[in-house]
Structure prediction request, 482 residues.
Amino acid sequence: MTDWSEKYEMVVGLEVHVQLKTRSKAFCGCSADFGAPPNVNTCPVCLALPGALPAINAEAVRLAVRAAIALECTINLTSVFARKNYFYPDLPKGYQISQFDQPLAVKGTLHARIPGETATRAIAITRLHMEEDAGKSVHDRYPRMTAIDLNRAGVPLVEIVSEPDMRSAAEAGAYLRTLKQILEYADVSDVSMEEGSLRVDANVSARLHGVTELGTKTEVKNVNSFSAVERSLQSEFDRQCAMLDRGETVRQETMLWDAAHGTVRPARSKEESHDYRYFPDPDLPPLILDPDYVKRLRHSLPELPQQLRERFVTHFSLGDAELDAVTAEPRLAEYFEGVARAHGDAKHAAKWVMGELAAALNETGVKIGNFPVRAPQLAELLDMIRDGKLSHTAAKAVFATMRVSGKSAPVVAAEMSVTQVGDDSQIEQWIAEVFVELPDETARFRAGEKKLTGVLVGAVMKKSKGRADPKKVNALLGKYSS
Prediction:
């Protein structure tokens, strides 16, 4: 495949729809929970029955403002809900309640960590506005039929629109991962692509290097993971570059990503804002925010990922890889900090969180909040390693049992009889028994053949069933070598 990056530059802007973590919908009292049987979470408002009137969900407003603050946006104290008109089977009203020329927030900034770069990259956010979700069209459940599920219709969203500041698929992926993390730390959304609470529309165009004018963009839809976003952007960029190289014109249209074939295909011509015939919703008054309310939300915002990274560098001296791992999501960061502070060795804590703990979470699929080994228990296990009471091998076995039983490290170690022995007299006894069992090796070792040290240490560890302190074994064996 041709590498077009030397001749053409990719330009990417992203539109991200994020479902807010409310119990009810944006303009009615129906449940916003995911996974209910089709069409049970509906009422006259979200079904658009005659005479039904919407009323704004105050919690949705709170979460939307919170998201805007976390993304360094300017909050508009007055914003207006508008009707975005289009006709589709899963849109009962024939329009979507959204915001247009007077959105909730504008001019934000996201500092993304780009792979291979040490400094973060500032990517501008054009706007953040509130809107309701449409329903869901199900195309693959019934033969020759599309089913409609309106449970999602009216669920509260924010749409976060970036400037076209990204210049590669990797940058777009970094932006999305950083955005997801910030929203998760701000506790405004579950940000689950699998459940549809985070959805991405990617706008991409190609232009010759050195040209400042933007090329014709297309919008890629139907992407269900960050890696799919990156792959679809690269595929569409390659398609556009090939067209430009042949002297063809790129049309502004919506493209669908086909993950099975790794290609994009056109779906329809891209709509412009005038196609939607926006106008202010006559049933909803302007949303007017009290400046003190916004100030209180700003002060109540928790520590965000970049602030947390900076604090962990100062307090724990962690490197980038360690920071990426332990701050991946807020509850994991809280867990790590609990272990690090209780144990006193942050590097050792990070090693276990990145290693044994991460492996256990991946294996079981359990979230860190429900993991049976709590932070103080893991710290107690690490204390036993540091104090010479458990070998690293034994500690891993103890941890595996703790995951199942929920018992503390000292109790499990005692039940498994793996507590490390540091008593000189006991280790001397094991050494004496090994000398009797391995007379040839012992004789050569006593004669000065140092390479046999490992053989004898291994034999002592086997005899002790891993309980002997290997440092003590080495030290005591040294007395017998000439």
Observations:
- The chain has three domains: 13-208+272-293, 303-416, 424-480.
